[in-house]
């Protein structure tokens, strides 16, 4: 780990214990004892090469960043707090127009990671690419591509040491420049009463059926009742394209129009199954899971290990 990253991790740990900026800066400047730096090696390097002013500025800057980070991302203490944090991140994601922001497929792949976070009650977890692909309802190449997009946008951080044979370790974060402090879950992450957000792995959203755009639009519609114009605004989709999509979803029985308002069908779960049958994609997820099972077995037999490549 690079020195400045190690210092930041140390400073955040102190901030989580209640240290203020001055106390953290002093800890980073702690002298060497028994040949071991108790504080920051970078601080002492700067002190020797650039003088006290540069070293103290580095310690102060690191302390300020650590305190600000902890204020924005308080320590998770227990599963309920972990679930709340994951829901806050989902709510932040739901407030963005992904057709113009990162793409509906990136939002779909992010949703699969959010589901894992909710399942384990934490923003940090391990996730193999094949499982991620199964949860998102896409192929592994798509997960690799969208993982890079999500990393660049700041929604997912991958542990740098995770390479080779290891299952990837990830941490969910609100995207770059996205703040969740005090964020209400109403209107973002909350659902129309009686409905849950659609499963991204459902066969109805296979690439040969409704695909990423269909999932993203249904995800938006199940969160809040809205007009076609409002849906277009929330998703970043052109109004004409949004109208065309809503007409298609209505024809498939997935949504109904109540005046100018679009609502999910009362029997949405059943209708999604019918759509998969109608569009010829029923069983696509099971085929993907079986293919991955065979690939896992072949990999383990070839390498004699119990885990799979995560890169």
Describe this structure in words.
The chain has 311 residues and is mostly helical. It has helices at 3-16, 21-28, 41-49, 52-72, 79-94, 104-120, 129-136, 140-153, 211-221, 228-235, 239-251, 268-278, 284-303, and strands spanning 32-33, 36-37, 124-126, 156-158, 169-172, 226-227, 255-258, 261-264. The strands form three sheets. A three-stranded antiparallel β-sheet has the order 3-5-4. A three-stranded antiparallel β-sheet has the order 6-8-7. Strand 1 and strand 2 (36-37) form a beta hairpin. Helix 3 packs antiparallel against helix 4 (52-72). It is elongated, with a radius of gyration of 23 Å. The two termini are 20 Å apart. Residues 181-189 have low confidence and may be disordered.
Show the helix and strand layout:
Blueprint: H1 3-16, H2 21-28, E1 32-33, E2 36-37, H3 41-49, H4 52-72, H5 79-94, H6 104-120, E3 124-126, H7 129-136, H8 140-153, E4 156-158, E5 169-172, H9 211-221, E6 226-227, H10 228-235, H11 239-251, E7 255-258, E8 261-264, H12 268-278, H13 284-303
Antiparallel strand pairs: 1-2, 3-5, 4-5, 6-8, 7-8
Helix pairs in contact: 1-2, 1-4, 2-4, 3-4, 5-6, 6-7, 6-8, 6-9, 7-8, 10-11
């Amino acid at each position: 780990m690079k020195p400045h990253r190690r210092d930041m991790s140390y400073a955040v740990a102190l901030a989580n214990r209640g240290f203020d900026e001055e106390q953290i800066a002093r800890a980073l400047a702690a002298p060497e004892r028994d040949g071991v730096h108790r504080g920051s090696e970078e601080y002492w390097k700067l002190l020797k090469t650039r003088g006290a002013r540069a070293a103290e500025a580095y310690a102060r800057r690191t302390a300020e960043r650590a305190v600000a980070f902890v204020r924005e991302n308080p320590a998770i203490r227990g599963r309920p707090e972990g679930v709340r944090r994951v829901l806050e991140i989902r709510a932040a994601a739901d407030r963005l127009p992904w057709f113009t922001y990162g793409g509906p497929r990136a939002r779909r792949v992010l949703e699969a990671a959010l589901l894992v976070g909710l399942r384990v009650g934490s923003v940090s977890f391990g996730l193999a690419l094949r499982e991620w692909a199964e949860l998102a309802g896409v192929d592994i190449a798509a997960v690799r591509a969208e993982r890079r997009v999500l990393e660049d946008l700041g929604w997912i951080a991958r542990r740098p040491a995770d390479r080779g044979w290891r299952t990837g370790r990830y941490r969910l974060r609100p995207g770059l420049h996205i703040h969740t402090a005090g964020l209400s879950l109403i209107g973002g992450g909350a659902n129309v009463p009686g409905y849950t957000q659609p499963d991204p792995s459902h066969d109805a959203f296979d690439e040969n059926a409704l695909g990423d755009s269909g999932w993203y639009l249904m995800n938006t519609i199940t969160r809040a009742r809205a007009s076609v114009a409002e849906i277009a605004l929330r998703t970043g989709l052109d109004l004409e394209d949004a109208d065309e999509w809503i007409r298609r979803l209505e024809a498939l029985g997935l949504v109904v129009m109540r005046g100018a308002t679009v609502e999910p069908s009362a029997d949405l779960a059943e209708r999604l199954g019918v759509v998969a049958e109608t569009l010829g994609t029923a069983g696509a997820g099971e085929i993907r899971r079986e293919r991955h099972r065979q690939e896992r077995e072949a990999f383990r037999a070839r390498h004699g290990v119990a885990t799979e490549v995560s890169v």
